């Protein structure tokens, strides 16, 4: 029995709104049976029904069977494929648009272009977008508010904000989507003044069009501490216009305050959001992580679980970062378990963060297991794993993993190369470092940061200052890290005066030094015995550059004074420090007291270290040796007992050499080396040769009789 066309259309629309696929298929069968599918109107509504239920193959089939397709037929299918967003669907949209243009008697209308523009965005194809724009201009649809808004949005998303602004300025009529798209485009390009300028224009021309989408767009443009005042003004306007209770606007306010570094206001805004969702919670947790407040971030994560708020990937990344920063390995493992349980194992971004978490928690073995689990890790994950090995001071494994990466033909990025160069620096492997340098040239990387700075550091640590200087002079843009690396290399390799001259050159080039710069400068003074120079630069740091001296700066000054024999001046300097500086400074003084045989002051420094609970075996060795020299056997036994009671043991010596592109590591007492028998034979031969030529061991009186 045939139903009236209007009745059929009403039924199909009802089923479309409620996405009742099964009932729709039943009705579709009835339409075919009664021969009513020949109606273009009915066919178009069926296309829309299947599209809304995401059954695009069926929509395509119905479209192909329509004998007299109209513009609605094309528009329905174009928008259906465009909304799903994947590359395949977007290519289909572009091809369908081309087919439409070839049809006689059919012309795109205002409902055609939004879907085609969206497809161009999904394909990141500016050329296609410009062609679509040309068609719109040719047939006179550029001034249509929907087409114009779509073009503005397309150009903004493709990063061509200037073209978006041209379209925007030529539009006769604009709606809230147009304004929000233009503001959002400026925000994505970090052009704050452009975004604010459009917003002010909107407030002047179309204040009634301001809505939550406009506010979220303009708030997203504010990302630095300089934008706080404007952000607070916008916050007031949000409250005044009654949008403060809208979740998306509340989320944007929290995110804005977090990015601007005003955590107190971010927390207050967070508390005022009524319907907190995963975006709200993630924004504030991320802010707390970035500010270093791991404890409160974990507390909020627990509350999030208590309120049964559904997590998203960004939330889990933020929590894993908390675990990384706070060393919360157990919580990190629980989050890992949750990832596995929830099916997130294939998410590369999460797995990369997980690898970093395990590496920072000194569980590089677990990090490698996560890495090996993924069948096709991307370059970010490779780089993260290499960085994990370097964090764990397992630089040999970092280089081995890079070699494996080359075997698998994975193209490195700049950060990968910088990290591998750091591994070479840590191992002082010049030949390996030169090979990596050659790779950077082969892969087309220049000497910009970070590769230039990493090369500088590698050559400096390996003592190849000529090569380091060549890299430094050829760097197109030198930042403070580059200057620091070169100054450090000169200082560490005995060229203290050259390091100080380079510092003066740095100031002439108007590069502002940082706290690290002054550490290297003070080291240069220490190696050259420049006491007055050390005091001069120590005072310059705070007087001229407002840098508050930290432990490492005081450490350098104590080293300068003790090398010059000014032991009591060094002691006075240490005792003037008002903040907790740990044990390092007293350790320097103790070592100097042994060298200058000032045993009384050495006892004072050693006992200070004992009070502070030093965990370094050398402290107990030196103090025990000094008491031995002074004939205070009771104190010798007390120090040794304290060492055993605290579980302090002497770390075995370790050294390594690079031979035929392979790094060989040697540890005192190691019996597992593959060449141990050959090593023993060679050592015995060398020992005999030394004795035969009259060489004997040099014994330090302060270390005699000590058995660790």
Automatic annotation (TrEMBL):
PROSITE patterns: PPR
BP terms from Gene Ontology: plant organ development; RNA modification
InterPro entries associated with the record: E_motif (IPR046848), PPR_At4g14850-like_plant (IPR046960), PPR_rpt (IPR002885), TPR-like_helical_dom_sf (IPR011990)
A molecular function GO annotation: RNA binding
PPR repeat residues: 144-178, 277-311, 378-412, 479-513
Source species, domain of life: Eukaryota
Record-linked Pfam families: E_motif, PPR, PPR_2
Transmembrane segments annotated in the record for this chain: none
Keywords carried by this UniProt record: Repeat
Name listed for the protein in its UniProt record: DYW domain-containing protein
Species this chain originates from: Daucus carota subsp. sativus
Upper classification of the organism: Eukaryota, Viridiplantae, Streptophyta, Embryophyta, Tracheophyta
């Amino acid at each position: 029995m045939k139903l009236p066309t209007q009745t059929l259309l009403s039924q199909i629309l009802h089923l479309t709104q409620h996405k009742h696929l099964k009932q729709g298929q039943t009705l579709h069968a009835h339409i075919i049976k009664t021969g009513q599918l020949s109606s273009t109107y009915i066919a178009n509504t069926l296309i829309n029904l299947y599209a809304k239920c995401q059954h695009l193959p069926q929509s395509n089939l119905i479209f192909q069977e329509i004998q007299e397709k109209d513009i609605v037929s094309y528009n329905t299918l174009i928008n259906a494929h465009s909304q799903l967003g994947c590359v395949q669907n977007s290519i289909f949209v572009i091809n369908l648009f081309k087919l439409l243009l070839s049809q006689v008697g059919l012309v795109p209308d205002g409902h055609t272009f939004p879907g085609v523009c969206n497809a161009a965005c999904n394909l990141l194809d500016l050329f296609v977008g410009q062609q679509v724009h040309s068609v719109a201009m040719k047939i006179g649809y550029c001034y249509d508010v929907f087409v114009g808004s779509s073009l503005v949005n397309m150009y903004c998303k493709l990063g061509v904000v200037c073209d978006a602004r041209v379209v925007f300025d030529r539009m006769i009529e604009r709606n809230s989507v147009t304004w929000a798209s233009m503001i959002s485009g400026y925000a994505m390009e970090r052009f704050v003044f452009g975004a604010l300028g459009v917003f002010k224009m909107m407030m002047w021309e179309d204040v009634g069009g301001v809505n939550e989408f406009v506010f979220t767009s303009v708030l997203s443009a504010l990302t630095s501490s300089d934008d706080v005042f404007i952000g607070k003004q916008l916050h007031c306007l949000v409250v005044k216009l009654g949008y403060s209770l809208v979740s998306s606007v509340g989320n944007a306010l929290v995110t804005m305050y977090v990015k601007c570094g005003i955590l107190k206001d971010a927390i207050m805004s967070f508390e005022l959001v009524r319907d907190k969702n995963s975006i709200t919670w993630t924004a504030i947790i991320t802010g707390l992580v970035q500010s270093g407040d791991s404890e409160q971030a974990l507390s909020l994560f627990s509350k999030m679980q208590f309120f049964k708020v559904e997590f998203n990937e960004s939330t889990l990344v933020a929590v894993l970062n908390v675990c990384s920063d706070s060393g919360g390995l157990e919580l990190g493992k629980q989050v890992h378990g949750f990832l596995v349980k929830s099916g997130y194992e294939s998410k590369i971004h999460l797995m990369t963060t997980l690898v970093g978490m395990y590496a920072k928690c000194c569980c590089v073995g677990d990090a490698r297991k996560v890495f090996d689990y993924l069948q096709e890790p991307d370059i970010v994950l490779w780089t993260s794993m290499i960085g994990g090995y370097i964090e764990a001071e397992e630089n040999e494994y970092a280089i081995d993993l890079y070699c494996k990466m080359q075997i698998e033909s994975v193209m490195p990025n700049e950060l990968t190369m910088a990290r591998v160069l750091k591994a070479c620096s840590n191992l002082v492997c010049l030949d390996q470092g030169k090979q990596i340098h050659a790779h950077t040239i082969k892969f087309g990387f220049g000497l910009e940061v970070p590769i230039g700075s990493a090369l500088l550091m590698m050559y400096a640590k390996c003592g190849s200052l000529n090569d380091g200087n060549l890299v430094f002079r050829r760097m197109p843009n030198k930042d403070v890290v580059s200057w620091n690396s070169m100054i450090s290399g000169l200082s560490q390799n005995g060229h203290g005066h050259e390091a100080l001259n380079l510092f003066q050159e740095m100031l002439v080039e108007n590069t502002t030094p940082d706290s690290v710069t002054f550490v290297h400068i003070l080291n240069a003074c220490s190696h050259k015995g420049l006491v007055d120079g050390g005091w001069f630069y120590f005072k310059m740091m705070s007087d001229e550059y407002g840098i508050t001296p930290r432990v490492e700066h005081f450490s350098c000054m104590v080293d300068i004074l003790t090398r010059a024999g000014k032991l009591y001046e060094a002691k006075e300097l240490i005792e003037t420090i008002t903040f907790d500086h740990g044990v390092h400074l007293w350790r320097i003084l103790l070592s100097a007291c042994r060298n200058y045989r000032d045993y009384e002051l050495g006892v004072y420094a050693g006992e200070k270290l004992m009070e502070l609970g030093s965990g370094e075996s050398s402290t107990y060795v030196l103090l025990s040796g000094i008491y031995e020299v002074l004939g205070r056997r009771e104190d010798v036994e007390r120090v040794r007992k304290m060492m055993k009671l605290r579980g302090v043991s002497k770390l075995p010596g370790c050294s390594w050499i690079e031979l035929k592109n392979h790094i060989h590591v040697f540890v005192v007492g190691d019996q597992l080396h593959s060449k141990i028998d050959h090593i023993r034979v060679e050592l015995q031969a060398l020992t005999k040769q030394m004795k035969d030529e009259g060489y004997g061991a040099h014994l330090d009186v302060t270390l005699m009789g000590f058995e660790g």
